[in-house]
Each structure stands twice: as structure tokens, then as C-alpha cells.
Amino acid sequence: MGKPHRERKLGENEAQAVTRLLRVSPQKLNLVAQMIRGKKVDRALADLTFSRKRIAQDVKKTLQSAIANAENNHDLDVDALVVKEAYVGKGLVMKRIKPRARGRAARILKPFSQITVVVHQVEDAA
Known about the structure:
Elements: E1 14-22, H1 26-36, H2 41-49, H3 56-72, E2 81-99, E3 105-121
Antiparallel strand pairs: 1-3, 2-3
């Protein structure tokens, strides 16, 4: 007796990938996620490849994983894929202390975040 299958949240022509515990603030990660929203996957991969943001390489890996999930798990056409959603969530925050003058201390926050990329297949209007 196993657990019953849960309903799939995504449509039949969609696939997703999630990367957790990225060592960057959600605000900075959202800037990179904005670059790829609504674009065709080949264009989004090119934009991430030549982006100067450090975290763009991790977002590129996540996008490539979503493309692989679409191709291998859901039999979708890679050439017709578009980035439907790319959204960012907060993760844990490490708290650190930096010594300051006169015996005081300053708090340093080291945030983590996660990104979810959803791709879907569009039908040609031809």
C-alpha cells in the first residue's frame, strides 16, 4: 500500500524545475529571473550565457533542467518551449556577527533563495 498519486499542478504541455538553497538574495535573483520571463528557451539560454550576473549560471542550469524535464518526462518539443513562469522565493537566512568599535557588534544577514522555472509548449499559429 503506497501513497495515492496526487494531481499534477501543471498542465499537460508544461514542465518545471526548482533549485533551492541558492546563496543570493531573492531581490538579486529576481533581476535575473525577469530577464527570461516570456522568452523562447533558446533566447533565454543565450541571455543567461552572456549575462554578467554571477547567479545567471545557476539560473541557466535550472532552465536547462526544466527543458530536460519537458523533453524526457513529458515528451514536449524543445523547439516550441517558452518560459511561462520564473519566480523566486525566500530561503533561510544565516545570521552572523561582525565586531565593531567599543565592544559593539553588527549583524550580518546572509540570505538564501530558491527559483522555480516553468516552461510550456506553444502551438504554432501557422
